[in-house]
Amino acid sequence: MTWNGDEYQARFDRIACKGGDVHGEAALVRSFAPRTVLDAGCGTGRVAIELARHGVAVTGVDIDESMLATARRLAPEIPWCRHDLADLDLGLSFDVVVMAGNVPLFTPPGTEPDLVAGVAGHVRPDGHLIAGFSLDRGYTLDDYDAHCRAAGLVLEARYATWSRAPYTGGEYAVSVHCRH
Ligand SMILES: C[S@@+](CC[C@H](N)C(=O)[O-])C[C@H]1O[C@@H](n2cnc3c(N)ncnc32)[C@H](O)[C@@H]1O
Q: What total number of domains does the chain contain?
């Protein structure tokens, strides 16, 4: 799938213009008080840029050049890296790795285990992987938990929303896994 970064970002800009909150993901990430964050599948940098505004050292990685072009235009000072998450080795580890916006649903079918392994490999000991995605498109929480487990991460918490509403079995979940 290819994206139009400016169109994607414009949707969020319109929501923000009308007073909507487009930074729920960043708020949850910030509650972990990270010094370093990898925004995995960063798109136009919506989450990373908000975190950087609060003093977090962020790196954004995405495969899509159009998304990254918008991110670079909006925040040229942030390191943006074009790479497939399923084959990522930055040689760095982060306090938090975040996947916001259904990232595992957009990786090519069959690459989900490698995607999770690729991002999990960048979580430092006692660090967290936080991911939110819809559950009505074939990739289940059982799949995701198994892929996290295989990558050395343990489930710590699960929510229905980025504002920590309790997860009671709905069609969207935010999962927090930890590397112990
Ligand atoms: C819906 S967008 C979410 C963008 C951003 N995280 C946000 O919440 O605004 C999903 C992003 O995941 C990226 N993505 C999906 N699979 C990927 C992979 N295997 N490697 C790198 N990026 C990937 C896509 O290119 C796309 O930019």
A: 1
Pocket test for ligand 1, best of 78, 99, 106, 162 (most atoms within 8 A of CB): 106
Neighbour-count burial of 130, counting CB atoms closer than 10 A to its CB (0-12 exposed, 13-18 middle, 19+ buried): buried
For residues 179 and 125, give the distance between their C-alpha atoms in angstroms, rounded to a whole number: 5
Average pLDDT over residues 106-132: 98
pLDDT at position 42: 98
Q: Give the CATH number of the domain where residue 100 resides.
A: 3.40.50.150
Range of 59's domain? Answer: 5-178
Distance CA 165, CA 48 (A): 23
Ligand 1 binding site (Cβ under 6 Å of any ligand atom): 3, 41-43, 46-47, 62-64, 67, 84-86, 100-103, 106-107, 115
3-state SS, residue 162:
coil
**What is the value of pTM for the model shown?**
0.98
CA-wise closest residue to 48 among 71, 70, 31: 71
